[in-house]
Q: What sequence folds into this?
């Protein structure tokens, strides 16, 4: 599902060159649940952004879902993201002006589904995360855990091949975090989703089938 | 949900701010529609073709008088059927705020020429017979609660009497009505004979302008030229025009109305552009994380910037529709009041079309920068800031 070969990411800040990723070699199979841990600034979110097609590598190659991302234009990359990736953020990133159902429906606006079909799919996704009865609530009317469930429903609704999660439990208490992790585990085990999750929480990382650790732009224990 | 729903929801993200912005835009377009109608009335093209009434006024200034001896010369022109002289009397009834036009006229020619004003024969007979008689439009009768037989005192501000006093008293012998909705009967008319006898010497045997009725409307332009040619080399040259044009010229004595109108509109729209652009900019800054999320979900740069541009357009178009709608609704009431000054006051379909064109232009202008910012937004950077 994910194949990175000599992946590098460099930022230029004024005259200073910052090497965030320094030759990452990585392979993630379809249906795998992988966690990425490491200290702040180690490059884990940058790697996640590259896998999710939010950014482009500076060097090396990266294939995700069979597509070389470096070769795609901005508009093709956007279309690729819509078709292949579901995103889950630490702070949920729901649109406050829309209710839960409409937030979940958002990615479907880019598909050719009818309005009715979009609504049905959004209801199904909300049912999967256990929030069918909160469909008409706006984000501000939901708890943090409920908002994250809505975000997961939004990530799922277009049936992406890979879910990228950036500290999905970072803003939640232990019990709620466990509920969210249970949900991700369910999606992995029951629905066969490939999941790449960045986390600072060792307990969260334990849920993954494979734990990777990054430090100073390289994967620890994986030859560069 | 549709994309339109998303635009609409975003537009009213901050409900109070958006409503206030729409209202301020609405006020700008209300002013636009009203001022445009006034400007158009002043700038309207003048065609003499087909008119059956002409106004012959002093060529250089409305305050220059015309001698009554012109009456016979004008009547002798082929195509002129009737003539009546009028003077701007001014005058104050009780208080300066009680403004209404007051004209000394010859009763029968006046009502003969102004066929839209209907007066009962016995009222006209009394008006023509009693030296100090006056008649008032039904609008004035109602406004001031006048009754037939009342003595109406008018204090002169332009035309004192020959004895030096300024109080003119008229016996109200009746009223008249108007059949023209755009020209309600709000004139106060009294006998020219009384005026010219009693007025101070500098006002005697003079009129402010002549109103003519033509029996050959298709020769109106030719007749106008012929009359003006008659007096071209006299001490009192004339300028013949339609009633609308005469009214416009009269109001233009106040200043360059069209220029004033355009300056006001320019100032209003400049302010509105600044205000709305500021609102849009503020709204965009608050929504950068939302826009980044949309891009993350796969909405392209063009899609996201399009949404931002559409919101700006919608904001201005809503205000424009509201403002011009209110102006259109007020049109009837305003037309009656302004008819005496600008003639035809009408919010035309052209004005509405120009208004919406302007709204689109302003919407694009104020939406362009936020849309560009949205287009260039980098997801990773925006999410980090959010």
A:
């Amino acid at each position: 599902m994910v194949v990175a070969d000599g992946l590098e990411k460099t930022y230029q800040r004024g005259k200073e060159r910052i090497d965030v990723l320094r030759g990452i070699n990585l392979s993630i199979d379809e249906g795998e649940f992988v966690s990425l841990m490491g200290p702040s600034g180690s490059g884990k979110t940058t790697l996640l952004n590259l896998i999710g097609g939010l950014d482009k590598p500076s060097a090396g190659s990266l294939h995700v879902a069979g597509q070389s991302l470096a070769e795609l234009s901005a508009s093709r990359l956007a279309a690729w993201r819509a078709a292949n990736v579901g995103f889950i953020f630490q702070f949920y990133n729901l649109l406050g002006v829309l209710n839960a159902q409409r937030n979940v429906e958002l990615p479907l606006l880019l598909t050719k589904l009818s309005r009715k079909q979009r609504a049905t799919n959004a209801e199904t996704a909300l049912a999967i995360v256990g929030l069918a009865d909160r469909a008409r609530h706006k984000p501000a009317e939901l708890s943090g855990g409920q908002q994250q469930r809505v975000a997961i429903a939004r990530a799922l609704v277009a049936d992406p091949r890979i879910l990228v999660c950036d500290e999905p439990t970072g803003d939640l208490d232990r019990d709620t975090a466990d509920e969210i992790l249970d949900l991700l585990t369910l999606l992995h085990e029951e629905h066969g989703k490939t999941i790449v999750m960045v986390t600072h929480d060792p307990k969260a990382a334990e849920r993954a089938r494979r734990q990777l650790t990054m430090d100073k732009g390289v994967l620890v224990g994986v030859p560069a | 949900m549709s994309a339109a729903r998303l635009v609409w929801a975003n537009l009213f993200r901050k409900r109070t701010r958006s409503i206030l912005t729409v209202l301020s835009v609405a006020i700008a377009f209300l002013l636009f529609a009203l001022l445009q109608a006034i400007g158009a009335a002043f700038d309207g093209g003048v065609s003499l073709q087909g008119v059956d009434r002409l106004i012959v006024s002093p060529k250089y200034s409305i305050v220059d008088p015309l001698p009554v001896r012109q009456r016979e010369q004008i009547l002798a022109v082929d195509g002129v059927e009737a003539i009546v002289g009028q003077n701007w009397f001014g005058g104050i009834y009780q208080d300066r705020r009680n403004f209404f036009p007051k004209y000394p006229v010859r009763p029968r020619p006046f009502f003969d020429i102004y066929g839209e004003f209907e007066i009962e024969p016995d009222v006209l007979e009394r008006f023509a017979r009693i030296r100090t008689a006056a008649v008032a439009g039904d609008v004035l009768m109602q406004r001031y609660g006048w009754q037939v037989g009342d003595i109406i005192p008018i204090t002169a501000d332009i035309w004192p009497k020959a004895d030096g006093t300024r109080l003119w008293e008229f016996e109200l012998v009746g009223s008249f009505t108007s059949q023209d909705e755009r020209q309600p009967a709000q004139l106060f008319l009294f006998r020219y004979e009384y005026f010219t006898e009693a007025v101070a010497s500098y006002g005697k045997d003079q009129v402010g302008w002549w109103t003519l009725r033509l029996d050959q409307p298709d020769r109106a332009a030719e007749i106008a030229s012929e009359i003006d040619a008659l007096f071209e080399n006299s001490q009192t040259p004339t300028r013949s025009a339609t009633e609308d044009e005469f009214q416009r010229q009269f109001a233009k004595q106040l200043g360059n109305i069209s220029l004033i109108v355009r300056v006001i509109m320019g100032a209003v729209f400049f302010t509105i552009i600044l205000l709305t652009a500021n609102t849009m900019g503020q709204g965009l800054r608050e929504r950068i994380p939302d826009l980044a999320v949309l891009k993350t979900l796969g909405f392209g740069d063009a899609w996201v910037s399009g949404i931002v541009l559409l919101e700006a357009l919608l904001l201005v178009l809503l205000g424009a529709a509201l403002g011009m709608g209110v102006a259109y609704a007020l049109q009837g009431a305003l037309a009656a009041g302004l008819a005496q000054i600008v003639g035809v006051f009408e919010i035309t379909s052209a004005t509405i079309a120009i208004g919406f064109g302007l709204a689109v232009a302003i919407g694009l202008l104020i939406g362009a920068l936020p849309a560009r910012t949205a287009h260039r937004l980098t997801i990773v950077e925006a999410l980090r800031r959010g």
Summary: Chain B touches chain A through 26 residues (CB under 8 Å). Residues 301-342 of chain B form the longest helix (42 residues). The longest strand of chain B covers residues 167-178. The mean pLDDT of chain B is 87.
